[in-house]
Amino acid sequence: MITASHNKVSDNGIKVADPSGGMLTQDWEPFADAIANAATPEHLVQLIDEFVKKENIHFHGVRSAEILLGRDTRPSGESLLEAAKQGINSIVGALAIDMGILTTPQLHWMVRARNKGMKATEVDYYEQLSVSFRCLIDLIPNGQKIHEIEDKLVMDGANGIGGEKMEVLKKMLDCLPIEVRNSGKGGGILNEGVGADYVQKEKVVPQGFGFKDVGIRCASLDGDADRLVYFSVPSCDSNMIDLVDGDKILSLFALFIKEQLSVLSMDGNEKISDDYRARFGVIQTAYANGASTDYLKQLGLEIVFTPTGVKYLHEQAAQYDIGIYFEANGHGTILFSECFLSWLETRCNELSSKNQDTEQHKAALRLLAVSKLINQAVGDALSNLLLVEAILQHMGWSIHKWVELYQDLPSRQLKVKVADRTAVVTANAETMVVTPPGIQDAINVEIAKYTRGRSFIRPSGTEDVIRVYAEASTQEAADSLASSVAKLVDQFLGFGSPR
């Protein structure tokens, strides 16, 4: 996929999908870095040769491979995609297939579907999403109705590919009143003052939104449509917003799925003997707001923390029958195991043969529809948006009810320039510092001074800075804790510290 996601329009790059449709496996990342930086053609061939031997990859004659290519709306995408095609087609047995201008999640979905022997065109993608969405809407309990103003959704397309694709999709969804703004057709600039990254970090209305949107449910995608956040405009007097981030999207999904599993496990008023007890897990990083974690624990859910990065979250989620992960930035999805889906299909058929109108049968149908609506390859803003809309209608919730699910703890993020970021080694999903010795004890002393205080540090993956995260019961306390921990980082690792 030729894209630079939520970055400015002048940037570009690539995202590589595995044959599973997921992200490039972590084991191959050092190899990808090495070949991208090979100094000469000879060095490139040498690196590939060494890697083939190391991974014990056998070639018996010519092996065929199809490489699907897509790009977003950046002007530089066309020439970069052409270069990729030439490179791929120069390899014996490899065929580059240009899938056109796509969202990143669409390309991931196509790779996954193709390798599962399913139909994998863009039309098939739209068909699967729209049919699954309509199924969930048809299964909404009688009497669930949200206020008329809440029937409408206004979507910020970040002046990118997501707005363009939603315009196509909404023609298939007459049960979803949606207005698309910042679709890229009106002369706006990709990701500039618009998009999920801007809305989530700045917590202000994107361009094209304002006082006329007070009380209306709004959503924002990023430039390649793999992130989604919601927001509402609380008043005419300010451009500040009430943000509904990835943590709250995760909580909504978890609540709905837990409800369906509970219904499915009941037979009349009695619990049935479970021949299959689904393992349901929620995966978060240390950056998840503490209030969201507390809320999920109160629901009785199993919560696991991983290091920061979608690749870690996705890998952990795949360990469960149903695994949900989201980052606060709005990137996340739900994974269903093949074993669970096979059991669910069988259970659904059993219930259907008895009585199609039972709550258990409806719960099974809902879970099957969710497994088809959600993009199990990667976080997908379009797919996730449709699932949010279906669940809100199912619950009869306004966005304001959703916002009130729990109150976020105030937080602050800072970064501190250091001489060498690799001097910091973390453990326990980056929540604890192992080296340098002494700094974690000093951080713990600062945390203890604040009500509901929590703080951690981690090295940046790209620059010589240490990132500081802090949260507490008030914004003033969170700011103060972050500042104290930043000073400790400077003391232990700053340019003035002993090397």
From TrEMBL:
Source domain of life: Eukaryota
Alpha-D-phosphohexomutase C-terminal domain sequence ranges: 415-487
Catalytic activity: N-acetyl-alpha-D-glucosamine 1-phosphate = N-acetyl-D-glucosamine 6-phosphate
Cofactor binding note from Swiss-Prot or TrEMBL: Binds 1 Mg(2+) ion per subunit.
Binding site for substrate: 327-329, 458-462, 467
GO BP terms: carbohydrate metabolic process; UDP-N-acetylglucosamine biosynthetic process
InterPro entries: A-D-PHexomutase_a/b/a-I (IPR005844), A-D-PHexomutase_a/b/a-I/II/III (IPR016055), A-D-PHexomutase_C (IPR005843), A-D-PHexomutase_C_sf (IPR036900), AMG1_II (IPR049023), AMG1_III (IPR049022), PAGM (IPR016657)
Catalytic residue list: 5
Cofactor: Mg(2+)
Pathway the protein acts in: Nucleotide-sugar biosynthesis; UDP-N-acetyl-alpha-D-glucosamine biosynthesis; N-acetyl-alpha-D-glucosamine 1-phosphate from alpha-D-glucosamine 6-phosphate (route I): step 2/2
UniProt-recorded Gene Ontology molecular function terms: metal ion binding; phosphoacetylglucosamine mutase activity
Annotated EC: 5.4.2.3
Keyword DNA repair attributed: no
Record: residues binding Mg(2+): 5, 222, 224, 226
Boundaries of every Alpha-D-phosphohexomutase alpha/beta/alpha domain copy: 1-29, 41-115
Pfam families associated with the record: AMG1_II, AMG1_III, PGM_PMM_I, PGM_PMM_IV
Family designation: Belongs to the phosphohexose mutase family.
Function of the molecule: Interconverts GlcNAc-6-P and GlcNAc-1-P.
Protein name, as recorded: Phosphoacetylglucosamine mutase
